[in-house]
Design brief:
Strand content: 15-25%
Strand order of the largest sheet: 2-1-3-4-5
Number of domains: 4
Number of strands: 19
Helix content: 25-40%
Radius of gyration: 22 Å
Distance between the termini: 55 Å
Shape: globular
Largest sheet: 5 strands, parallel
């Protein structure tokens, strides 16, 4: 017999990587199945759940700010911190004013049951969820296929907080994608801590992609970050299928071989260059995006110039720039040669200037061409969406374009992307 009682309103929020977003999607569906009423994190809710990030000290700060912000939205709300920050420093978060419950990565799969045991939820409520917030747009679904990393790059905290490498069985992935497609999602994003290390039942990442394309009925398939060594000729040849988005995120971190060695990255700039050349040979319109850390311990002026020069040579479509952030427990935290905050800021500004110019140059290559855009949302009569190679496109149109893939004639740069005329 169902209890005629209303579940609390729940707001789910996430910081950091696409894997965190994928995990929030899983939790969203779990709580929906429980009959929970889900609302936007910008609304006053009875219960807030934040999937935290701890990759930098800035991510830590944003986590704390968000957790405090929920309490301002509803002083009587219960606030739950889960994920990487919760795994790394649970006692620190427990001491944060307004945080009621802290759940690490290993317990994420049990969140609904933990909430029930804590008295926050009751199973079998009568009132179904009423608001799908982000998922209601049903354009892009993030799918977790793998978790865990054993690379132990010198600067990185991730292997310490996601320390159990595991891959999701192919059958489960295919079933999940078919369900998301049936719900209306046009694009599936394959994500994980190190998706290039995917391996289950004798099937690697290439085999997984082949199975998805052959069996799951996806309109678009996008991959998250890869390591240079993981982009083989066998993998890249799969991009002859137009459903695979021509977008490759290859974290560089430094364009100096000596810094890469100190970082314990398992490639040199020559390896990286070879990978980018292979991608562009097979997929000429591909966007190659990357991450760069400035101010790593001991980084000299010459080493930073090497990074600038290499990034200029690679002509990246987008560069995410991060000042080095010391993470307790990592090898780099004890390295000599700390770079001052002033120098890190100056180098970051120079790298951001290059990033802006590089992105603009990539975008301008597509002016005057027609390409397909998956439209996501509208603001003030202006629709926006993404091309397969991750260019943000804007279109003024009075119709509802939500979740439509439409051919668009790209006309001029606009807000870091392109505005256009719709090809009828």
């Amino acid at each position: 017999m169902k209890i005629k009682q209303q579940q609390p309103t729940i707001a789910l929020d996430s910081l950091g990587c696409k894997l965190n977003q994928a995990e929030m999607g899983i939790l969203f569906r779990q709580l929906s199945d429980w009959g929970c009423r889900l609302v936007s994190p910008s609304q006053a809710a009875d219960l807030y759940i934040l999937n935290t990030c701890t990759v930098t000290h800035i991510a830590d700060r944003k986590t704390r700010q968000k957790l405090r912000g929920y309490r301002r939205l509803n002083p009587n709300a219960r606030v739950v911190a889960v994920g990487c920050y919760a795994e790394r420093a649970p006692d620190e978060l427990k001491k944060l004013e307004g945080v009621d419950l802290v759940i690490g990565n290993d317990e994420k799969v049990r969140i609904p049951r933990i909430l029930e045991n804590s008295g926050y939820l009751q199973q079998g409520m009568e009132t179904p969820y009423s608001h799908l917030h982000e998922e209601s747009r049903r354009t892009r679904a993030f799918l977790k296929v793998q978790e865990g990393c054993r690379n132990f790059c010198a600067y990185c905290i991730v292997p310490h907080v996601r320390h159990r490498p595991a891959s999701v069985p192919v059958k489960s992935i295919l079933e999940e994608i078919k369900q998301r497609v049936a719900e209306g999602f046009k694009e599936i994003v394959i994500t994980g801590t190190e998706i290039g290390q995917y391996y289950s039942d004798g099937i690697d990442l290439s085999g997984l992609i082949e199975r998805i394309l052959a069996e799951a009925g996806v309109a678009r398939l996008r991959l998250s970050s890869l390591q240079p060594s993981e982009v083989t000729s066998g993998l890249i040849n799969l991009w002859h299928d137009p459903r695979l988005c021509p977008h490759f995120h290859l974290s560089l971190q430094s364009g100096s071989d000596s810094v890469l060695d100190r970082m314990n990255r398992r490639y040199c700039t020559g390896d990286y260059r070879q990978t980018v050349n292979l991608i562009r040979e097979v997929v000429p319109d591909a966007a190659v995006t990357t991450d760069v850390i400035v101010g790593f311990p001991g980084e000299s002026d010459d080493e930073f110039r090497e990074t600038l020069d290499f990034c200029r040579e690679m002509q990246f479509a987008r560069i995410h720039v991060f000042p080095y952030s010391s993470r307790p427990g990592t090898a780099a935290a004890g390295m000599p040669g700390t770079v001052s905050a002033t120098i890190k800021k100056e180098r970051g500004q120079r790298m951001l200037a290059l990033a802006k110019a590089s992105s603009q140059s990539f975008i301008e290559r597509f002016i005057g061409r027609t390409t397909e855009v998956l439209f996501e949302q509208e603001s003030g009569g202006l629709w926006s969406g993404l091309t397969g190679n991750y260019i943000r496109v804007y279109l003024k149109n009075g119709s509802d374009l939500t979740n439509q893939i439409l051919p668009v004639a790209l006309s001029k740069p606009y807000k870091g992307g392109i505005s256009e005329e719709l090809e009828v």
